[in-house]
Specification:
The chain is α+β, with helices and mostly antiparallel strands. 40% of the residues lie in helices and 21% in strands.
């Protein structure tokens, strides 16, 4: 898990000027921010039971954290990940690869 200062709050979800990027298992809404912040949304349509939803959230946050650690100067962006319904059949490797692709899309598009 990320520290509280790195997690998105209610106000972050209400922002209007977010750019949307799509992957095979996730959609990401992103914009520049004063600090790095991230959030993950897993609906009940994806997993009915909350332990399954939390397990997926932990996996996604772990993959995001790994991607951030690879970059020395990661940009200060707000990224909110929304899961798609087909993520419930995905392995951790597939989730990790999709997160990697989306993070690189976000960083290149936001910084340009």
């Amino acid at each position: 898990m990320f520290k509280a200062r790195f997690r998105a709050n209610k106000d972050d979800f209400k922002k209007k000027n977010l750019k949307v990027f799509h992957g095979s298992f996730f959609s990401v809404s992103a914009s520049l921010s004063p600090t790095f912040r991230t959030g993950v949304v897993v609906s009940k349509k994806v997993f009915k039971l909350s332990p399954d939803r939390h397990k997926l959230k932990r996996r996604v946050l772990y993959a995001i954290r790994d991607e951030i650690k690879k970059h020395k100067n990661f940009p200060k962006v707000l990224m909110i990940f929304f899961t798609k319904i087909n993520v419930n059949k995905a392995s951790f490797q597939e989730i990790n690869e999709d997160i990697k692709n989306l993070v690189s899309k976000v960083t290149t598009a936001i910084l340009l």
